[in-house]
Amino acid sequence: MKKITAFVMVLLVIAVPALCFGMDGITFVRKDPILAAALSWYIPGLGQLYSDAVLRGAIFYVVENALLIGALVPFLELKLDVTGNMGIGVDLKSKDTIFESNDQRVALALGVTLVVVHIINVVDAVNSARDYNKNYEDTLRTNLQYDVETESVIMGVQGRF
Questions:
Q1: Of the candidates 72, 1, 43, 90, which has an alpha carbon nearest to the alpha carbon of residue 16?
Q2: Are 33 and 129 in contact, with CB atoms under 8 Å apart?
Q3: For the chain, how long is the longest CA-to-CA vector?
Q4: 57-97: pLDDT as tens digits
Q5: 140: enclosing H helix or E strand
């Protein structure tokens, strides 16, 4: 378990920023829409962060986590047991009767909303990567011309930076 946690931390701290930005900060790196979708599938908003849509990524992260907490809390019973010798313990148990209260019905609606928002998140990550690539390709144009008089080839790159 410690190895998996260490791997995830290395991925988040080192690999993701390397994917989000060019190697020297100026170089254009095409964003892979499938990678953006996979990143957003596992960590909400990470695909948008990868595609330089930071605000949308942060919004998806906050909204999905809030929906997840809202959907799980009514089904859990949090019991804090403070005893002299044992310290503080947390006991999370599933309640016996499901849909007993109105809170649990609301939680089910939040769970369904979470699934819909998560699918929208993944689709938006793909579109963010495609938009990033399209916007950059619109600003960068290659130019290849042949000059008949001098019999030479002129090659250049035009772009807005």
A1: 43
A2: yes
A3: 96
A4: 999 999 999 999 888 877 776 666 666 555 455 555 555 56
A5: strand 140-147
pTM over 0.85: no
Q: How far apart are CA 69 and CA 17, in angstroms?
A: 28
CA distance 68 to 58: 15
Local structure of residue 51 (DSSP, 8 states): T
pLDDT digits (tens, 9 = 90+) for 21-35: 444 445 567 899 999
Q: Tokens representing 17?
A: 């920023």
For 142, the token pair is: 């290659």
**Residue 142 in 3-state DSSP?**
strand
The amino acid present at 81, given as its one-letter code, is: D
Tell me the one-letter amino acid at 124: D
Amino acid at 70: G
